[in-house]
Write a sequence for this structure.
């Protein structure tokens, strides 16, 4: 399988990974405008690389792997930094919310690895709830960044602190049910989503066991 590393979308993803330490440093140093500008540039590059991959035939196996990793590193890093009380920020993410979101991600990654390595299930596309949860997490970071530069009221972040954990739990539970539905057929050698046929009814007590036909075919018929 050709990874095709040197496509334009992949270069934009690499650029986001390189920019992440600068974003974290700007947040920790209290350089709120710089942090917002870096974040905005990363968000634009994320949109552009996805658009190019989908509409101009620039998708690649490496990009399909790196893009969600870059997004997850961005969210986990910023959530942890904004949870630190020492971070110079007007608002801080509650520690329990960080533990909840990271715990959900670890659970999903572990389940995906088990399904891929143990059962050969490699297709695990995101659900609507999963995408909604990611949007809520990004909105949380945006609300804090914009509040730090006096461009958004604090109540918006408060709404995000309420909506994000609800979506985190809902999407995590949904992923567990999806994984269970896929593991059942796969353990029987069937494709994901196929129904496993229930066992037939057992014969009634005392009923004669079904007899195999005699060699050569049914009675009264000679073998040809």
């Amino acid at each position: 399988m050709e990874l095709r590393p040197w496509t334009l979308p992949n270069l934009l993803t690499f650029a986001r990974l390189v920019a992440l330490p600068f974003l974290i440093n700007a947040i920790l140093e209290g350089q709120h405008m710089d942090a917002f500008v870096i974040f905005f540039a990363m968000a634009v590059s994320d949109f552009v690389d996805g658009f190019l991959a989908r509409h101009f035939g620039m998708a690649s196996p490496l990009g399909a792997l790196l893009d969600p990793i870059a997004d997850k590193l961005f969210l986990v890093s910023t959530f942890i930094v904004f949870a630190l009380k020492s971070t110079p920020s007007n608002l801080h993410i509650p520690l329990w919310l960080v533990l909840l979101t990271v715990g959900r991600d670890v659970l999903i990654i572990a389940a995906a690895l088990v399904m891929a390595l143990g059962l050969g299930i490699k297709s695990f596309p995101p659900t609507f709830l999963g995408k909604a949860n990611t949007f809520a997490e990004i909105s949380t970071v945006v609300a804090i960044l914009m509040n730090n530069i006096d461009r958004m009221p604090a109540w918006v972040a408060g709404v995000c602190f309420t909506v994000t954990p609800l979506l985190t739990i809902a999407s995590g539970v949904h992923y567990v049910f999806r994984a269970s539905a896929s593991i059942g057929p796969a353990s029987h050698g069937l494709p994901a989503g196929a129904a496993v046929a229930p066992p037939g009814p057992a014969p009634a007590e005392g009923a004669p066991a079904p007899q195999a036909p005699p060699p050569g075919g049914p009675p009264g018929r000679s073998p040809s």
Summary: The chain has two domains: 1-73, 90-192. The two ends are 54 Å apart (CA to CA).
